Amino acid sequence: MANDREVTIYDIARELNISATTVSRGLQDHPTISKKTKKKIFDLAERLGYRSNHFARSLRNQKTNTLGIIVPRLNSHFMSSVIAGIENAANEQGFSLLIAQSSESSVKEAASVRTMFDSRVDGLLVSLAVDTAELSHFEHFFKKNIPVIFFDRVMPHENSVNILIDNRQAAYNATRHLIEQGCRRIMHLTAPILQNVYKDRLKGYKEALGEYKIKFREDYVVITNLSQEAGAEVAKTILKMKTLPDGIFAANDTCAIGCMLAMKEQGIRIPEDIAFAGFNNDPVTQVIEPHLTTINYSGYEMGQVAARHLIDHVRDVSFVSSTNTIILRSELIVRASSLKKGRK
Amino acid sequence: MANDREVTIYDIARELNISATTVSRGLQDHPTISKKTKKKIFDLAERLGYRSNHFARSLRNQKTNTLGIIVPRLNSHFMSSVIAGIENAANEQGFSLLIAQSSESSVKEAASVRTMFDSRVDGLLVSLAVDTAELSHFEHFFKKNIPVIFFDRVMPHENSVNILIDNRQAAYNATRHLIEQGCRRIMHLTAPILQNVYKDRLKGYKEALGEYKIKFREDYVVITNLSQEAGAEVAKTILKMKTLPDGIFAANDTCAIGCMLAMKEQGIRIPEDIAFAGFNNDPVTQVIEPHLTTINYSGYEMGQVAARHLIDHVRDVSFVSSTNTIILRSELIVRASSLKKGRK
User: Which of A52, A70, A330, B121 could disulfide-pair with A165, CB 3.0 to 4.6 Å?
Assistant: First the structure.
């Protein structure tokens, strides 16, 4: 069947009774081809389902007007906000998006990088998988000077820009708030510490304890995958402890909420017995009772900033090497889950 | 810089001092080329960052081992479960995924279809934007016999398969449950009715009312974008009504929860004053108090089934035309938000 064969410029040339060179030039918006002929060529190309030859086109100008996005998971409010922000900036500038998820696996991340490379994206926005320890799988992008920007889960690299919040400061603020509310036995629920976000949040937690001369205890740091189920599991373990903690700072809201629900079921009063603080300001923080104290930072803005920078790089407006790191604002939002001393 | 130029088979041929034909054959795993030479070619191609020429390759065997996914939004628990299910099935069979979101706009949907077409995906999985009224933007896929499968938000087409649940039956079950709990003034919160899912849910709602001889009232059907904010807005409107409804069936959980939170703030008791039922069984239904009665159906399974069917079509194991529609199971989950008569 004719339908199974790829449509070429020769098919278009034959049907319009013009040369293949004219078709090729027309498709490339060459100035020697008249508007009328260009329209004829484009209309027929569209009708026949001609697919622009990325290979040939990329030899000419290296652009496909497509940005690639690789994220650990698509199932969080934060990540869907980031993608909405990226989309807003990309639309403004006429770029399409191709998205892939690594499912928190560096092996899948490398495969996605390859797929994006083969799809000839003009640039890449990446938030790293939890077990990614180095960046060699991005070498083809770096070598070809195709810009790569890392956001949220980042790793320093001379050929890329990092966009993130000050995780250490945010975690310090949350922990200090719990201490100021009277907590002295504060546990920290987090993820494997390979990634900057968790490393820095742990640092901020320790720093606040240190400032108030509260001894850091290894057994008060619990490493999980930060899912709601993991939060419920941790609750079980905690409830078996001889002395209960009086505060919990979780590295995300989902895990905090799983833990809170399981504790409430067992009659623990929040915040009277145990105060809670999370991270991300997911909408669910205002559904849970009591509402959850958390760190707010705008995924939408992070996505917008990341995409705008990437597009500037793609267009050579700026160079990756001149900017290294962009830090976005975050803020502590105090709600009932941590207010042991009542509202001020 | 050499780095800015696309690497070609001629570069590989020159460096290895062999012919371009040999390189081309080697890359295509041609039997006339020795294993040793193939290894040399692949190693160098990898090192130089050679990108396989999709165009030439597709002329040969039309396969890129990539599936395209286009969904309205990536910000729901349901959609991230679907994508996890698709990913599971795709991984098993060695396929990568490229994802795009239409942001509920048929115009963006058409642009994403085009991007997927240019990326030469082997097949397409689509859940339609809320304002998509016809399928002409998929014509290039249909014409070329590249399989397209629609899931959840579907539209019948002779060249594609639809995978969905029986939305009419599910909505009938939810509404009948509210009636059995004593509700007589039941409102229905839904989205614009272009799409099958909302059309069929409205049908099921009407059917249950009819069965119990409860008069259908146009003003009891509220069309919104089904966001949490929209739910809160609807609550305000409802609270101004002369006679309050005694039951609300929302076409998704997010909107139901927005409405519940706003009503609770105004002192409305749930379920005593107004009973609630939602749709989707999002995790947040078990965070809200009282827990929300809802319709459960597995996004993960829907994604798996859709991807497996698509891959079968890509491999010509089955033909799209022989299967038309696949209906997956759904169930009513009764929780405290609707139990006016107490637990049975």
Answer: A330
